[in-house]
Amino acid sequence: HHPNALDALSQEGLSEEPVQQEREAAGSGGEAAAGRRATGKGKQLPRGSRKKSSSKKKSKGEEEEGWGESESGSSESESGGAERQREHPFIVTEPGEVARAKKNGLDYLFHLYEQCREFLLQVQAMAKERGDKCPTKVTNQVFRYAKKMGASYINKPKMRHYVHCYALHCLDEEASNALRRAFKERGENVGAWRQACYKPLVSISAPLGWDIDAVFNAHPRLAIWYVPTKLRQLCHLARSNSSAGGSVLTAANELPPPPPMF
Amino acid sequence: HHPNALDALSQEGLSEEPVQQEREAAGSGGEAAAGRRATGKGKQLPRGSRKKSSSKKKSKGEEEEGWGESESGSSESESGGAERQREHPFIVTEPGEVARAKKNGLDYLFHLYEQCREFLLQVQAMAKERGDKCPTKVTNQVFRYAKKMGASYINKPKMRHYVHCYALHCLDEEASNALRRAFKERGENVGAWRQACYKPLVSISAPLGWDIDAVFNAHPRLAIWYVPTKLRQLCHLARSNSSAGGSVLTAANELPPPPPMF
DNA sequence: AGAAGGACCAGTGGTCCGTA
DNA sequence: AGAAGGACCAGTGGTCCGTA
């Protein structure tokens, strides 16, 4: 809507396969990963992020090889105009491990959350400068801004889908790393790993009375993310079950306000 | 949507003209006015709040007198089944002054904000009990709840319209009271008084860098209200103007981040 | 005219499900 | 089959404007 100084940075060219560079940027980072550089410089596209040619139907033989089925060259760093429609799927990787063969690793996944945070910080700075309402969370506005800045690989469904995985990474990196190693070892897929991230978070919330919002809000990098519905429900359920041996429950007073502080 | 224990309290009968009682409840109150009693008991309806007969067209002579034009009896405490469609308009009253003649006073206006706060607290308690997302502001959900609890005289456009007036009352009750007396003295209407409430708030925000959000958030009773758009714009404008004599301004760096701390 | 509030609307949070 | 993300939808913040 409103043009501003940052518009000039949008929609730039894409560097080819900056995997090693990305490896450094996407190191399983807690506080150390912050404010490294300005976001949106187009240098953080990992493992084959490309702009999709806007609804252009490839004209039969023009560049038929290059995206999709072409199995030649497991490394995708050649064939200049390669284009693809979606991000590569995630696989379970250990901390520091580089995903290969048209896959993205979990360090990269978590790095996307750091990028979103940087986009939010920019949106907040702009809002304050303009006297607009200032978002405190990663909102639609931030996703729109990320897209405008060329980070087309960031989208809302994906980020919301894995928020609780990132939460575990933030809150207990050791536990998160152990889980990643275990699930890689077992050859589990990303969906199974993702599911397994819920339980440790419920445990983390228990000492705070299963108040998962309090858990998120207490961590500066996490506070900018909405608590996922399912995680909230699981914490609520755990709180309910914890009081199962208690007194008679009524509809109006179903749950004990201060739960055991174990 | 979800029935709960509080449903039973909704839609009750209305006591007639509890003005004196209301005077006590609606005393121009800062902290002292809080948590006096449970909200929604139907006892706080002021100066002739009535349920409107649901789209019933009064059947010619049934109760033709009683609401609207009937000028008989300036006090409205008689004629049992009196009904009316809208709240009486506000007039500028001094602190403690009771409005008469089908008008509502400003103590009552401010009291509505306290009521909304109590409704929010109830909604928050219910959300926590149910494991739902917990609102931190007076949202549509809270207005819906207020209506369900029989507080049909509370509605969103009205509350949003006068938020900044309530803000001044919270932040500088002396200044607010002085303004009320001055505008009553001059015979100004409510609209003029409302307009005049903006300027003192801009001044209050100045030492905080005209950050009106920070001003609201620093006050517990105010933090639950969204900052009105116009107030935010006025503060932004004041910040801009304060730097008018400064250095050359660019589009990307228009405003001085730390403004004068006068 | 001054004012109260029903009701509308653009953009939100949330996530399903057609897609690859 | 497992997974990425366009696009939809119910309910939001915001306030206009038909009403009295």
TrEMBL record, chains A, B:
Keywords: Activator, Developmental protein, DNA-binding, Nucleus, Transcription, Transcription regulation. The keyword Transcription regulation applies. GO terms for biological process: regulation of DNA-templated transcription. Signal peptide: none annotated. Residues 78-242 form the Floricaula/leafy DNA-binding C-terminal domain. The keyword Protein biosynthesis does not apply. Residues 69-80 have a biased composition (Low complexity). Belongs to the FLO/LFY family. This is Floricaula/leafy-like transcription factor. The gene is LFY. The chain holds residues 150 to 411 of 411 of the full protein.
